[in-house]
Structure formats: C-alpha cells, structure tokens
C-alpha cells in the first residue's frame, strides 16, 4: 500500500501517534512534517534544475531516473528488443513436452568431429608433462 505498510499497520501508527503526541498537538506536527517534505522536495527540484543548466544543451534530454542501475541496464544494454538475451529461442529448443512424450530422443551430434580433434601424444620415459604456471 504505502511503503509496504498495510492498512492494519497504518491504523496502529495513527493510534500510537494520537496516544504519544495527543490530539491537540498532532495537527501541528503533521503540518510541520508536510512543510518539511515540501521544502526538501523544492530543494531537490532546484538542485536538478541547477545541474541541468550547468550541463548545457548537450544534455537537455538527460533524466536523473536513468542513473538508477535497473533503468540504465534496461535502456542502454538491453534496448528495445523484447527478447534481448535470446530466452525465447532457448525455450523453444528445450521444450519439455518433447521430453515427456514417448518418442525416442534425437541422437546428439558431437560439436566437433573426432578427425578434427588433436591426437594425444604419450609422454616418453623421463619426460615431464607440460606445465603452465598461470593455469594452476
């Protein structure tokens, strides 16, 4: 509802505020809180306007919401493609219904034919195996 606070929590907070501050001081407290929020909001808006004016005309379409990491990734890396990571093709290739059918599975083909693979050369007596210190 409001900052992940349910209606029961809101009622509890209202009752606690009335008990703690009293019904005579509560309207003044709410008025002060609203005034403080308005001042903070106007300060933030003026700071945004100052930043936009200092950046110049090159950044006239700059939005501060674009600095949010989720928005940045969605806008700059993923783009407008509805399936940017190719999950739709992957989902079609790995259709579970074909596995659940009684049909035999298709034969898997190796990615690289055996003729293209390098032959393994056995080591001679006393020869040390190749060693790569960066790989260990």
Describe the protein's topology.
Elements: H1 7-55, H2 69-78, H3 87-93, H4 96-100
GO cellular component, one term: TAT protein transport complex
Protein name: Sec-independent protein translocase protein TatB
Region (Disordered): 105-136
Describe the protein.
The protein has 136 residues and is mostly helical. The chain has one domain (7-102). 52% of the residues lie in helices and 0% in strands. It has four helices and no strands. The longest helix is centred in the first third of the chain and has 49 residues, at 7-55. The two termini are 54 Å apart. The mean pLDDT is 79.
Which spans have pLDDT < 50 for at least 5 consecutive residues?
Answer: none
Q: What would the average pLDDT be, to the nearest integer?
A: 79
Structural class: mainly alpha
Sheet with the most strands, sense and barrel status: none
Q: What is the share of helical residues?
A: 40-55%
Order of helices and strands: HHHH
Number of strands: 0
Distance between the termini: 54 Å
Q: Percent of residues in beta strands?
A: under 5%
Question: How many helical elements?
Answer: 4
Q: Please, how many domains? A: 1
Query: Which of globular, elongated, flat, extended, rod-shaped describes the shape?
Result: elongated
Radius of gyration: 33 Å
Main location: membrane
Protein name: Sec-independent protein translocase protein TatB
GO molecular function: protein transmembrane transporter activity
Subcellular location: Cell membrane; Membrane
